[in-house]
Specification:
Blueprint lengths: L1 H24 L9 H18 L1 H7 L10 H11 L4 H16 L6 E8 L5 E12 L3 H67 L5 H35 L23 H22 L3 E8 L4 E8 L7 H66 L5 H36 L9
Antiparallel strand pairs: 1-2, 2-3, 3-4
Helix pairs in contact: 2-3, 4-6, 5-6, 6-7, 6-8, 6-10, 8-9, 9-10
Length: about 425
Protein backbone atom coordinates (compact mmCIF):
# COMPACT_ATOMS: atom_id res chain seq x y z
CA UNK A 1 0.00 0.00 0.00
CA UNK A 2 2.90 2.35 0.75
CA UNK A 3 4.35 1.72 -2.70
CA UNK A 4 1.00 2.49 -4.31
CA UNK A 5 0.67 5.75 -2.37
CA UNK A 6 4.22 6.64 -3.36
CA UNK A 7 3.38 5.95 -6.98
CA UNK A 8 0.21 8.02 -6.68
CA UNK A 9 2.14 10.96 -5.27
CA UNK A 10 4.79 10.69 -7.97
CA UNK A 11 2.15 10.60 -10.68
CA UNK A 12 0.35 13.57 -9.12
CA UNK A 13 3.60 15.52 -8.94
CA UNK A 14 4.33 14.73 -12.59
CA UNK A 15 0.83 15.85 -13.49
CA UNK A 16 1.19 19.15 -11.60
CA UNK A 17 4.55 19.85 -13.26
CA UNK A 18 3.07 19.11 -16.67
CA UNK A 19 0.05 21.36 -16.10
CA UNK A 20 2.14 24.19 -14.63
CA UNK A 21 4.58 24.06 -17.53
CA UNK A 22 1.70 24.17 -19.97
CA UNK A 23 0.14 27.14 -18.18
CA UNK A 24 3.41 29.02 -17.91
CA UNK A 25 4.19 28.50 -21.58
CA UNK A 26 0.99 30.34 -22.49
CA UNK A 27 1.73 33.41 -20.36
CA UNK A 28 3.09 36.49 -22.17
CA UNK A 29 6.43 37.87 -21.13
CA UNK A 30 5.92 40.84 -18.81
CA UNK A 31 8.26 43.50 -20.08
CA UNK A 32 7.98 47.10 -21.10
CA UNK A 33 9.64 46.14 -24.37
CA UNK A 34 6.71 43.82 -25.14
CA UNK A 35 3.99 46.46 -24.58
CA UNK A 36 3.98 47.60 -28.20
CA UNK A 37 3.84 44.01 -29.44
CA UNK A 38 0.89 43.24 -27.17
CA UNK A 39 -0.99 46.32 -28.39
CA UNK A 40 -0.29 45.33 -31.99
CA UNK A 41 -1.58 41.83 -31.31
CA UNK A 42 -4.76 43.25 -29.75
CA UNK A 43 -5.36 45.44 -32.80
CA UNK A 44 -4.77 42.52 -35.11
CA UNK A 45 -7.22 40.39 -33.15
CA UNK A 46 -9.86 43.11 -33.40
CA UNK A 47 -9.32 43.45 -37.14
CA UNK A 48 -9.56 39.70 -37.61
CA UNK A 49 -12.69 39.57 -35.47
CA UNK A 50 -14.31 42.33 -37.54
CA UNK A 51 -13.31 40.64 -40.80
CA UNK A 52 -14.97 37.40 -39.70
CA UNK A 53 -18.17 39.01 -38.40
CA UNK A 54 -20.51 41.29 -40.34
CA UNK A 55 -22.16 42.36 -37.09
CA UNK A 56 -18.94 43.54 -35.45
CA UNK A 57 -17.67 45.20 -38.63
CA UNK A 58 -20.99 47.05 -38.88
CA UNK A 59 -20.63 48.23 -35.28
CA UNK A 60 -17.07 49.42 -35.78
CA UNK A 61 -17.97 51.33 -38.97
CA UNK A 62 -20.48 53.56 -37.18
CA UNK A 63 -19.52 57.24 -36.87
CA UNK A 64 -21.05 59.54 -34.29
CA UNK A 65 -23.38 62.27 -35.57
CA UNK A 66 -22.27 64.56 -32.74
CA UNK A 67 -20.06 67.23 -34.33
CA UNK A 68 -16.52 67.52 -32.97
CA UNK A 69 -16.16 70.31 -30.45
CA UNK A 70 -19.92 70.85 -30.21
CA UNK A 71 -21.79 71.20 -26.94
CA UNK A 72 -23.20 67.68 -27.35
CA UNK A 73 -19.75 66.19 -27.88
CA UNK A 74 -18.42 68.08 -24.84
CA UNK A 75 -21.17 66.46 -22.77
CA UNK A 76 -20.83 62.95 -24.21
CA UNK A 77 -17.05 62.62 -23.77
CA UNK A 78 -16.82 63.03 -19.97
CA UNK A 79 -20.03 61.07 -19.47
CA UNK A 80 -18.58 58.07 -21.33
CA UNK A 81 -15.33 58.42 -19.40
CA UNK A 82 -17.28 57.88 -16.16
CA UNK A 83 -19.15 54.83 -17.50
CA UNK A 84 -18.67 51.65 -15.44
CA UNK A 85 -19.38 49.66 -18.65
CA UNK A 86 -20.63 46.39 -17.19
CA UNK A 87 -21.43 45.31 -20.75
CA UNK A 88 -17.73 45.63 -21.58
CA UNK A 89 -16.90 42.95 -19.00
CA UNK A 90 -19.52 40.68 -20.56
CA UNK A 91 -17.96 41.23 -23.98
CA UNK A 92 -14.50 40.42 -22.63
CA UNK A 93 -15.82 37.21 -21.08
CA UNK A 94 -17.52 36.24 -24.33
CA UNK A 95 -14.30 36.86 -26.27
CA UNK A 96 -12.32 34.66 -23.88
CA UNK A 97 -14.92 31.90 -24.20
CA UNK A 98 -14.78 32.18 -27.98
CA UNK A 99 -10.99 31.99 -27.92
CA UNK A 100 -11.20 28.87 -25.75
CA UNK A 101 -13.79 27.26 -28.04
CA UNK A 102 -11.70 28.00 -31.13
CA UNK A 103 -9.30 25.29 -29.90
CA UNK A 104 -11.97 22.73 -29.08
CA UNK A 105 -10.87 20.49 -31.96
CA UNK A 106 -7.52 19.83 -30.25
CA UNK A 107 -7.03 16.79 -28.00
CA UNK A 108 -7.61 17.24 -24.29
CA UNK A 109 -5.28 16.12 -21.51
CA UNK A 110 -6.53 15.31 -18.03
CA UNK A 111 -5.98 13.14 -14.96
CA UNK A 112 -7.75 9.87 -14.28
CA UNK A 113 -7.86 8.20 -10.87
CA UNK A 114 -9.44 4.79 -10.48
CA UNK A 115 -9.69 2.20 -7.69
CA UNK A 116 -8.44 -1.22 -8.68
CA UNK A 117 -9.43 -2.54 -5.29
CA UNK A 118 -10.42 -1.22 -1.90
CA UNK A 119 -6.81 -0.56 -1.04
CA UNK A 120 -5.17 0.39 -4.33
CA UNK A 121 -5.57 3.60 -6.31
CA UNK A 122 -4.13 4.09 -9.79
CA UNK A 123 -3.60 7.59 -11.22
CA UNK A 124 -2.86 8.23 -14.86
CA UNK A 125 -2.95 10.92 -17.52
CA UNK A 126 -5.48 10.40 -20.31
CA UNK A 127 -5.25 12.00 -23.74
CA UNK A 128 -8.69 12.25 -25.40
CA UNK A 129 -9.48 13.34 -28.93
CA UNK A 130 -12.75 13.49 -30.85
CA UNK A 131 -12.42 12.11 -34.37
CA UNK A 132 -16.00 12.83 -35.44
CA UNK A 133 -18.65 14.80 -33.53
CA UNK A 134 -21.40 15.16 -36.10
CA UNK A 135 -20.76 18.89 -36.36
CA UNK A 136 -21.00 19.56 -32.62
CA UNK A 137 -17.49 21.01 -32.26
CA UNK A 138 -18.01 23.40 -35.18
CA UNK A 139 -21.40 24.43 -33.79
CA UNK A 140 -19.82 25.14 -30.40
CA UNK A 141 -17.33 27.45 -32.08
CA UNK A 142 -20.14 29.20 -33.97
CA UNK A 143 -22.12 29.56 -30.74
CA UNK A 144 -19.16 31.20 -28.99
CA UNK A 145 -18.63 33.51 -31.96
CA UNK A 146 -22.30 34.54 -31.97
CA UNK A 147 -22.11 35.06 -28.22
CA UNK A 148 -19.35 37.62 -28.82
CA UNK A 149 -21.54 39.38 -31.39
CA UNK A 150 -24.47 39.55 -28.96
CA UNK A 151 -22.23 40.99 -26.25
CA UNK A 152 -20.76 43.51 -28.70
CA UNK A 153 -24.20 44.75 -29.77
CA UNK A 154 -25.32 44.98 -26.15
CA UNK A 155 -22.23 47.07 -25.38
CA UNK A 156 -23.07 49.42 -28.25
CA UNK A 157 -26.68 49.69 -27.09
CA UNK A 158 -25.57 50.38 -23.52
CA UNK A 159 -23.11 53.07 -24.64
CA UNK A 160 -25.60 54.84 -26.91
CA UNK A 161 -28.29 54.77 -24.23
CA UNK A 162 -25.90 56.34 -21.72
CA UNK A 163 -25.02 59.16 -24.11
CA UNK A 164 -28.71 59.60 -24.92
CA UNK A 165 -29.62 59.83 -21.23
CA UNK A 166 -26.93 62.43 -20.61
CA UNK A 167 -27.98 64.52 -23.61
CA UNK A 168 -31.64 64.37 -22.55
CA UNK A 169 -30.65 65.73 -19.14
CA UNK A 170 -28.55 68.40 -20.80
CA UNK A 171 -31.42 69.43 -23.10
CA UNK A 172 -33.87 69.57 -20.22
CA UNK A 173 -31.51 71.86 -18.34
CA UNK A 174 -30.86 74.03 -21.39
CA UNK A 175 -34.57 74.34 -22.19
CA UNK A 176 -35.35 75.32 -18.60
CA UNK A 177 -32.48 77.81 -18.58
CA UNK A 178 -33.58 79.43 -21.85
CA UNK A 179 -37.19 79.57 -20.71
CA UNK A 180 -36.14 81.10 -17.40
CA UNK A 181 -34.09 83.72 -19.25
CA UNK A 182 -37.11 84.67 -21.36
CA UNK A 183 -39.36 84.77 -18.30
CA UNK A 184 -36.80 86.85 -16.44
CA UNK A 185 -37.07 89.59 -19.05
CA UNK A 186 -40.86 89.32 -19.01
CA UNK A 187 -40.86 89.65 -15.23
CA UNK A 188 -38.95 92.90 -15.39
CA UNK A 189 -41.43 94.33 -17.89
CA UNK A 190 -44.41 93.05 -15.90
CA UNK A 191 -43.03 94.64 -12.72
CA UNK A 192 -42.80 97.91 -14.63
CA UNK A 193 -46.46 97.59 -15.65
CA UNK A 194 -47.36 96.83 -12.03
CA UNK A 195 -45.60 100.00 -10.91
CA UNK A 196 -47.44 102.07 -13.51
CA UNK A 197 -50.78 100.60 -12.47
CA UNK A 198 -49.98 101.15 -8.79
CA UNK A 199 -49.32 104.80 -9.44
CA UNK A 200 -52.51 105.10 -11.48
CA UNK A 201 -54.52 103.55 -8.66
CA UNK A 202 -52.93 105.92 -6.16
CA UNK A 203 -53.88 108.84 -8.38
CA UNK A 204 -57.44 107.54 -8.76
CA UNK A 205 -57.07 107.10 -12.53
CA UNK A 206 -57.44 103.29 -12.58
CA UNK A 207 -59.42 100.75 -10.62
CA UNK A 208 -57.91 98.43 -7.99
CA UNK A 209 -59.22 95.41 -9.87
CA UNK A 210 -56.82 96.06 -12.75
CA UNK A 211 -53.91 96.15 -10.33
CA UNK A 212 -55.05 92.83 -8.81
CA UNK A 213 -55.14 91.22 -12.26
CA UNK A 214 -51.62 92.41 -13.05
CA UNK A 215 -50.31 91.19 -9.70
CA UNK A 216 -51.90 87.80 -10.29
CA UNK A 217 -50.24 87.53 -13.70
CA UNK A 218 -46.96 88.64 -12.15
CA UNK A 219 -47.18 86.05 -9.37
CA UNK A 220 -47.97 83.30 -11.90
CA UNK A 221 -45.01 84.28 -14.07
CA UNK A 222 -42.73 84.42 -11.01
CA UNK A 223 -43.77 80.91 -9.97
CA UNK A 224 -43.07 79.59 -13.46
CA UNK A 225 -39.68 81.33 -13.47
CA UNK A 226 -38.78 79.69 -10.15
CA UNK A 227 -39.88 76.27 -11.39
CA UNK A 228 -37.79 76.53 -14.56
CA UNK A 229 -34.76 77.66 -12.55
CA UNK A 230 -35.10 74.67 -10.23
CA UNK A 231 -35.44 72.28 -13.17
CA UNK A 232 -32.25 73.68 -14.70
CA UNK A 233 -30.32 73.27 -11.45
CA UNK A 234 -31.61 69.72 -10.88
CA UNK A 235 -30.76 68.65 -14.44
CA UNK A 236 -27.21 70.00 -14.19
CA UNK A 237 -26.71 68.29 -10.82
CA UNK A 238 -27.91 64.96 -12.20
CA UNK A 239 -25.73 65.36 -15.28
CA UNK A 240 -22.67 66.14 -13.17
CA UNK A 241 -23.27 62.90 -11.26
CA UNK A 242 -22.83 61.00 -14.55
CA UNK A 243 -19.66 62.81 -15.62
CA UNK A 244 -16.02 62.91 -14.60
CA UNK A 245 -16.13 66.72 -14.55
CA UNK A 246 -18.63 69.50 -14.00
CA UNK A 247 -20.72 70.40 -17.03
CA UNK A 248 -22.55 73.46 -15.77
CA UNK A 249 -20.55 75.76 -18.03
CA UNK A 250 -21.53 73.97 -21.25
CA UNK A 251 -24.21 75.87 -23.15
CA UNK A 252 -25.97 75.79 -26.49
CA UNK A 253 -27.56 73.11 -28.64
CA UNK A 254 -26.32 71.41 -31.78
CA UNK A 255 -28.28 70.78 -34.97
CA UNK A 256 -27.93 67.14 -36.01
CA UNK A 257 -28.26 65.58 -39.43
CA UNK A 258 -29.50 62.01 -39.16
CA UNK A 259 -31.50 59.81 -41.51
CA UNK A 260 -33.23 56.46 -41.02
CA UNK A 261 -30.99 55.06 -43.75
CA UNK A 262 -27.74 56.17 -42.08
CA UNK A 263 -27.16 52.76 -40.45
CA UNK A 264 -28.89 49.53 -39.56
CA UNK A 265 -30.77 49.79 -36.25
CA UNK A 266 -29.03 48.21 -33.27
CA UNK A 267 -32.20 46.28 -32.46
CA UNK A 268 -31.97 44.48 -35.80
CA UNK A 269 -28.26 43.75 -35.34
CA UNK A 270 -29.00 42.25 -31.93
CA UNK A 271 -31.69 40.02 -33.42
CA UNK A 272 -29.31 38.81 -36.13
CA UNK A 273 -26.63 38.01 -33.57
CA UNK A 274 -29.14 36.17 -31.39
CA UNK A 275 -30.35 34.30 -34.47
CA UNK A 276 -26.83 33.01 -35.12
CA UNK A 277 -26.52 31.93 -31.51
CA UNK A 278 -29.90 30.15 -31.56
CA UNK A 279 -29.06 28.31 -34.79
CA UNK A 280 -25.67 27.24 -33.41
CA UNK A 281 -27.34 26.00 -30.23
CA UNK A 282 -29.86 24.04 -32.31
CA UNK A 283 -27.02 22.47 -34.29
CA UNK A 284 -25.37 21.42 -31.03
CA UNK A 285 -28.61 19.75 -29.94
CA UNK A 286 -28.99 18.02 -33.31
CA UNK A 287 -25.40 16.75 -33.21
CA UNK A 288 -26.15 15.13 -29.87
CA UNK A 289 -28.28 12.52 -31.66
CA UNK A 290 -25.46 11.62 -34.07
CA UNK A 291 -22.67 9.15 -33.29
CA UNK A 292 -19.52 10.63 -31.79
CA UNK A 293 -16.23 8.89 -32.57
CA UNK A 294 -13.50 9.46 -30.00
CA UNK A 295 -10.17 7.90 -29.09
CA UNK A 296 -8.12 8.03 -25.91
CA UNK A 297 -4.76 6.83 -24.68
CA UNK A 298 -3.65 6.45 -21.07
CA UNK A 299 -0.20 6.84 -19.53
CA UNK A 300 -0.62 3.67 -17.46
CA UNK A 301 -0.01 1.51 -20.49
CA UNK A 302 -3.64 0.82 -21.22
CA UNK A 303 -3.14 1.43 -24.92
CA UNK A 304 -5.38 3.18 -27.43
CA UNK A 305 -9.13 2.88 -26.90
CA UNK A 306 -12.04 4.23 -28.90
CA UNK A 307 -15.79 4.71 -28.58
CA UNK A 308 -18.71 5.35 -30.91
CA UNK A 309 -21.89 6.57 -29.24
CA UNK A 310 -24.33 9.49 -29.43
CA UNK A 311 -24.23 12.09 -26.69
CA UNK A 312 -28.00 11.96 -26.13
CA UNK A 313 -30.01 8.75 -25.73
CA UNK A 314 -32.17 7.79 -28.70
CA UNK A 315 -35.79 7.23 -27.78
CA UNK A 316 -39.30 7.37 -29.12
CA UNK A 317 -39.46 11.16 -28.77
CA UNK A 318 -36.33 11.78 -30.86
CA UNK A 319 -38.34 12.72 -33.96
CA UNK A 320 -40.31 15.34 -32.08
CA UNK A 321 -37.09 16.73 -30.58
CA UNK A 322 -35.55 17.08 -34.03
CA UNK A 323 -38.66 18.87 -35.30
CA UNK A 324 -38.47 21.19 -32.30
CA UNK A 325 -34.85 21.99 -33.17
CA UNK A 326 -35.87 22.85 -36.74
CA UNK A 327 -38.70 25.01 -35.42
CA UNK A 328 -36.21 26.85 -33.21
CA UNK A 329 -34.12 27.78 -36.24
CA UNK A 330 -37.22 28.99 -38.10
CA UNK A 331 -38.36 31.04 -35.09
CA UNK A 332 -34.97 32.74 -34.91
CA UNK A 333 -35.31 33.87 -38.53
CA UNK A 334 -38.83 35.17 -37.93
CA UNK A 335 -37.66 37.16 -34.90
CA UNK A 336 -35.17 38.97 -37.13
CA UNK A 337 -37.92 39.82 -39.63
CA UNK A 338 -40.19 41.02 -36.84
CA UNK A 339 -37.42 43.14 -35.36
CA UNK A 340 -36.73 44.66 -38.77
CA UNK A 341 -40.40 45.54 -39.23
CA UNK A 342 -40.71 47.11 -35.77
CA UNK A 343 -37.51 49.11 -36.22
CA UNK A 344 -38.64 50.34 -39.64
CA UNK A 345 -42.00 51.44 -38.26
CA UNK A 346 -40.41 53.26 -35.33
CA UNK A 347 -37.85 55.02 -37.53
CA UNK A 348 -40.52 56.02 -40.03
CA UNK A 349 -42.58 57.47 -37.20
CA UNK A 350 -39.57 59.34 -35.82
CA UNK A 351 -38.72 60.71 -39.25
CA UNK A 352 -42.32 61.90 -39.73
CA UNK A 353 -42.29 63.50 -36.28
CA UNK A 354 -39.02 65.23 -37.10
CA UNK A 355 -40.46 66.67 -40.31
CA UNK A 356 -43.60 67.78 -38.46
CA UNK A 357 -41.59 69.42 -35.66
CA UNK A 358 -39.42 71.16 -38.23
CA UNK A 359 -42.53 72.64 -39.81
CA UNK A 360 -44.00 73.52 -36.40
CA UNK A 361 -40.78 75.29 -35.44
CA UNK A 362 -40.96 77.48 -38.55
CA UNK A 363 -44.59 78.29 -37.76
CA UNK A 364 -43.78 79.00 -34.10
CA UNK A 365 -41.01 81.40 -35.09
CA UNK A 366 -43.38 83.21 -37.43
CA UNK A 367 -46.03 83.43 -34.72
CA UNK A 368 -43.50 84.70 -32.21
CA UNK A 369 -42.39 87.34 -34.68
CA UNK A 370 -46.00 88.37 -35.22
CA UNK A 371 -46.64 88.52 -31.46
CA UNK A 372 -43.56 90.67 -31.00
CA UNK A 373 -44.70 93.01 -33.77
CA UNK A 374 -48.14 93.34 -32.11
CA UNK A 375 -46.47 94.05 -28.78
CA UNK A 376 -44.31 96.77 -30.29
CA UNK A 377 -47.36 98.29 -31.95
CA UNK A 378 -49.38 98.30 -28.73
CA UNK A 379 -46.40 99.70 -26.84
CA UNK A 380 -46.06 102.58 -29.27
CA UNK A 381 -49.80 103.22 -29.13
CA UNK A 382 -49.65 103.17 -25.34
CA UNK A 383 -46.83 105.70 -25.38
CA UNK A 384 -49.00 107.88 -27.64
CA UNK A 385 -51.92 107.61 -25.19
CA UNK A 386 -54.06 105.45 -27.52
CA UNK A 387 -53.94 102.24 -25.42
CA UNK A 388 -54.53 101.37 -21.79
CA UNK A 389 -52.02 99.54 -19.60
CA UNK A 390 -54.19 96.42 -19.47
CA UNK A 391 -54.21 96.27 -23.28
CA UNK A 392 -50.42 96.17 -23.36
CA UNK A 393 -50.28 93.62 -20.51
CA UNK A 394 -52.60 91.25 -22.38
CA UNK A 395 -50.57 91.45 -25.59
CA UNK A 396 -47.35 91.00 -23.64
CA UNK A 397 -48.70 87.87 -21.98
CA UNK A 398 -49.58 86.47 -25.39
CA UNK A 399 -46.07 87.19 -26.66
CA UNK A 400 -44.44 85.47 -23.66
CA UNK A 401 -46.59 82.36 -24.08
CA UNK A 402 -45.75 82.17 -27.80
CA UNK A 403 -42.03 82.59 -27.13
CA UNK A 404 -42.19 79.76 -24.57
CA UNK A 405 -43.99 77.55 -27.10
CA UNK A 406 -41.26 78.21 -29.68
CA UNK A 407 -38.57 77.18 -27.20
CA UNK A 408 -40.42 73.94 -26.42
CA UNK A 409 -40.80 73.01 -30.11
CA UNK A 410 -37.12 73.77 -30.78
CA UNK A 411 -35.96 71.35 -28.10
CA UNK A 412 -38.54 68.71 -29.06
CA UNK A 413 -37.02 68.70 -32.54
CA UNK A 414 -33.53 68.09 -31.18
CA UNK A 415 -34.84 65.30 -28.93
CA UNK A 416 -36.52 63.57 -31.88
CA UNK A 417 -33.25 63.57 -33.81
CA UNK A 418 -31.35 62.23 -30.81
CA UNK A 419 -33.92 59.44 -30.40
CA UNK A 420 -33.34 58.37 -33.99
CA UNK A 421 -29.56 58.56 -33.60
CA UNK A 422 -29.77 56.37 -30.47
CA UNK A 423 -31.78 53.66 -32.22
CA UNK A 424 -29.26 53.67 -35.08
CA UNK A 425 -26.29 53.58 -32.71
CA UNK A 426 -24.85 56.87 -33.94
CA UNK A 427 -24.20 58.68 -30.66
CA UNK A 428 -20.66 57.30 -30.29
CA UNK A 429 -17.96 56.10 -32.68
CA UNK A 430 -17.89 52.35 -33.11
CA UNK A 431 -14.10 52.13 -32.86
CA UNK A 432 -14.13 53.99 -29.54
CA UNK A 433 -16.74 51.65 -28.14
Amino acid sequence: MGQNLLGLRATSAFLMVTLMSGCMSGLPEVSRFKAVDLDTQAVQKREKEAAESLVISSLQARQSVLPRGSAFERVATPVLAANSRAAESELRSARLRAEAQSKNWLPTLGPSISLTSLSDAVASIVLDTVLYSGGRKKAEREFAKSDVEVAAVNLSIDTNERVHTALMLYLRGQEARETATMLGGALEDMKHFEWIMTERVKGGVSDMSDLSVIRHKLAKMQAQFNAETEIALASVAELNAMSVKKLGEVEGITQLEVSRYSAQPLEVLLSEAEKGRSIANAQIDRAGYLPTVSASVSSNGGGLTGSIAPTKPIGIGMGANLEAITATEEAAGRRVAQSQEEASRRLAKQEAETAALNRQLAEARALTGGAKANLDLFQSQYDAGQRQVMDVVGVYETYAAQAESEIAVKYDLVRARLDMAKDLGLLADGDDI
